[in-house]
Request: fold
Amino acid sequence: MLNNEEVMTLYHRILERIDDKRLDIITLDVFDTIVFRHVNYPTALFEKVVSEVPALNGFSGEDYRVLREQAERAAREQASHKEDIVFEEIFQCMPFDTVTKQTLLDAELLAEKNHAMVNESMVAVIDTLLAKGVSVALISDMYLSEQQIKDTFFFNWPTLYKLPLFVSSEFGKTKHSGSLFRLLAKTQAWSFSRWLHIGDNEKADVSSPHAMGIQTLYFHPALDTQRITAIESQHFLADTHSSATRLLASLQQDGNTQVEQVAFEIGAFVWGPVFDAFTDWIIKQSDASGCKHILCLMREGYLFTPLVKRKLELQGRKDIKVSAFYVSRKSAFWPGIDTSQPQWLENVMDTLMLYRGYTLKNFIRDFHLSDELLSLLNGDLELKNIENLFVEGEALYARLVREAKVHTTQLEHKIETQRRLLKTYLKQVTSAKYSECAVIDFGNGGTIQHNLEVILGESAGANLLFYASIRAYRFVEKTLCRAFISPGTERFHVSKKLARSPECIEALLLGDKGSTLSYKQNNGNVEPVLAKGITANKELCEKFLSGCLSFAENAFKHGKPALEAATVQAIVARYILMPTDLEASLFTQLYHQDNFGTDGEYTVIDEGQKQLINQYGLEKSLFKLTGDKDWELGNVHWPSGVIALIDNDFIPRSLGLLDADNHYHVQILIKKLLNLKWHTVSVYGAGEFFRDILPLLKSNGITVERVIDRRAQSDESISVAGYRVTTIEDALYQGSRHILITSYAFREEIANRIMHAAAEQKLDNVQMISV
Reply:
């Protein structure tokens, strides 16, 4: 039964819906609903077969995967008269002897068994339903037989083994086309109005059954996880890992709003695996350095502190303490100033002029100047832009230095006081020596760590960054920083891209915590003085943190080790360079502020940035972004995110990643048909693409009058998905005038064939659309 203390609101919602609607027939999809695989995409499972079959000696896993994929394609072409094939037919299309074919079949079933896991939470839902007397059955579009599925996946699950299981391969009918649902309604006497189907495939499990009146529940994250993992694997060459843990972690909650759900899923599916690997690395580095206390620098410590604590708890470790340490570039900047150096004041000013967002108003406040200058100049003027500006005949830079020197004694006292308070505050946080502390920060230049070591006169046990740019090495003589993603190990320039667009993730790491401005004495204790945090981010940051924790806990539960660094970089690179529109949309709701205590906050993505990208044009924007990492820096915070919101497919399409993506081309064709208001079409192409688009045609009220294919020229009668396949000549003769071409590779050849046939019949009103 479901444990009410567990965070599984999606599973509880299933039960509540069934009770509310008084439904008594529940069917569930099998794969990625009940059975999940520990590979990063389904066909990666085929790569596991190579080491088990001597006849494949010399094959790489990738080579065999392609061979296996093409054999399945060939089997489906040969069996186009029925809607699905059986497992054995696939291996009949392989170039091996009979014994080897059987060995390959057996090896694949073994690989399925070894890399599969059952969703225990869904089994708990099924147990609850059965106890209430609800009829439960399983339905799968799968080439495996009922017995193969039960013996391979359900051998340790009596509840699942006993459930009725209806498989497309045994009926020659699929959920995808809707014919399997219709058949079961007839043979099992199931009423559509009392029936709920649950599954993860948007076409087969949602649009197809919904079109015939069956209630549906889409059991899948809001994020397009298939596209995400496909791009990670294809373009960034992510090594095989467990998509099961990512998917199950993402399905552990159901946000009250879509934006909350997306925040949770970005944590669970995207950054959860990344930060789980980072926290694992932190603990190993701390052990290697002999560290007894891990100090997570605030503000990112909002996220890292609970993640590291939870990782240690899961590992059963009690020997290392973890604390949030409130410090920032600003609060460590002032105590770190060496006032014994000549021209220290000018050096401080030169440093402040490097900070983006540090304004004249900030300078006047920090250096205790009068507000007179604010009546002469714009207080929001950034200090880095004051060169060549004059006030009352005097260079503004010289004026600021002159007025600041009047307050030198006051500034020196401030610096000394802040140094003393910071040292006291550190003693309050940890009883360990600083040389026994691992100091954790997100990135990228190690400024805070260096300043702390200067202030304390002692090196940390380890300075650990999530990512580092080459700037982290400017203190190489005094401060050693180690980075999880560093210029020496990165594969996709991840650190440079994160340094250019930190806003793409930083806003989610900070909670509603403001930057540490300074320290003060209060009732015998030292407390950090914090800037006002961004309360508007609080809920979304909490959901994101929950998602990251969900991944860590699921990975530990299923015994999955932390991801390798190369896979982590592939995940991060995909996110930065090719986010989905849903990921990017979250950042229209998130605000960001600099951690140096500058005033103001800004939306990470807003309409002004979209307008700027549109003015450049998407192609030019992508070209500029690729060639110049600082392009529109400060004006467009996350260029790839903005582009994704304008056109979700633009970047992957530009890189040729969608050429073989049926889902993408199906969506394009449906949009074209709806814009043209075609309600009846004939479809040219009776292959896999036709089977993919058919449910969406039906759900959008578009009738398929005929299916056309060259194979109909043979004497043999061919049927696909219940449609008799005909020739283009017969289709035109029978009245087909609106023709949908479903072949991407041969669309021009097919169009010419249609035009030639139309000319032969002297028809001038034939219209065609294609992908």
